[in-house]
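Anyone else keep sequences and structure tokens together like this?

Example one:
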Amino acid sequence: MAEEAQGQDKSEEPTPRKREKAREEGQAARSRELNTMAMLVAGSIATLALAQHMARQFSTLMADVAAMAVHPDGQMTAVLDLATTTALHAALPLLIVVFVAAVVGSGAMGGFVFSSKAIAFNASRMNPLSGLQRMFSMKSLIELAKAVAKFTIVAGVAVATLHLWSRDLLRLGLIPLPEAIVDSLELVAHTFIALSCSLIVIAAIDVPVQLVDFNNKLKMTRQEVRDEMKDSEGRPEVKSRIRRLQQEIARRRMLADIPKADVVITNPEHYSVALQYVPAKMNAPKVLAKGADLIAFKIRELATASRVPIVAAPALTRAIYHSTDIGDEVPAPLYVAIAQILAFVYQLKQYRRGAGPAPRPLGDLAIPDEYRRDS
């Protein structure tokens, strides 16, 4: 079966189970270009927003370091400790923003996947032949083309940005240090925004390519689809066995309700339908049981043993049998015919108790044409 599947083309779209299994193994569509762009855009915007705060922190740091350096008791350890603490405090908001952008950018396309199988040891990853195949594969050529395109676009935008802001860069040496720090941070932020926005072109192309490539990897052969259906739904013979057991349980439960019926109407030979009507609890009579041939005979047999009245009403029996399921209420167009049956049963019970005359034989029942079934 596996050899047969290997010889087939993977022309079928992946099933939900196939996609779920891929996620369990840590596989999801990913775009490094989208992640890089998100980190650069978020980091540059954060740098622009935090430029004043970071400039104050770095100005204070430079003044404190200079003061400690010329102090006769100054120690290099204390200077390094102060520099590290202040720099971390100044850059911490930027680092947090970049970290959040990296996490969000990573899961933006394929969602967040946590799988221990992805980090488990796999000897095939250490195979040098597999590594060479990946190096000279079509995917590697695509990655090389993307890298060249990305370098070309980013380099072009960088040259244009430096040319545009060359005067501002030269002006930094003519202004006071605190102001120069702020301006330099803003220039860096604007430059990174321009560079990261240039990556939008690469990301816009890479995201659809990665989605299509990942979907193609998950495609299945027809044999794989059939095997998966067998595994998920069970073998035909097992399903048939389960279905028979379910039908048998439902039949036993149905026949156990026969003593609760108010009347059993019959075809009189081929069909039997057991009806119950409790005015205080039901809006209309309910079908407790129904069956044909041997089941119909069993219903009549249990009804006789339980002293449930049996009434021959061929047209009405066929109409209810074909238009309802067990547990359903009788359809409204059949209310008049059912009322005639219940009235006949009530008179029959009164007659058997000696409290009334014998009921008249049932005449033609009112069965709408759309509910009539040929015998």
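And example two:
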Amino acid sequence: MSEQNQSHSPDQESLETLRDIKRIMERSSRFLSLSGFSGIIAGICALAGAWLAKYKLEQYYSRYDERTFFDGHDFNDLKNELLLIAGIVLVLALSLSFFFTWRKAKRSHVSIWNHTSKKLLVNMIIPLAAGGFFILAMLQYNDWRFVAPACLVFYGLALVNSSKYTFTDIRYLGFLEIILGLINTQYIGYGLYFWAAGFGVLHIVYGIIMWWKYERKQTA
């Protein structure tokens, strides 16, 4: 028995060495400090923002009946309020997501700002910036119909484009965001619900899966 164990030990050592090499290569080529809690908190912020936006819309439409014309000044106020809500949700979600990611990187003794994270950020910003300018152009002409679908599609493209520098799970989230946005183009009147599903529900589900797969053992 002892001779058999000794004959297996070199193979086990070689396997462990290969695993170590794989982990080192992943750390050097992929940013692995993204936290599942970041996705969960971003989803919660998105759902809260969607609820507040729905409340503002209901207030706006409740002031009118079939005999009353819509006032342009009131519509501009509504537009500014919705943009303010979106801005607050974005800043809050990014800030809290950064905190949880920074905390995970600190626990893993990994720098949050390195060559890989820079590549991740650049590949994500390009589709997001393009989508942002496209959406602003639509808002410039008061065309709100495709704002929610465009948000989902361009965000999904950003996730897919940057997924090669982090967990591959991000790619699947991106595909789902794109599909949801394309479906939303056929149901224009339900943009807020699709927005809440994409940025809220999908983020929460993704965050839970990420935590279960990669962080559960670390926190246990």
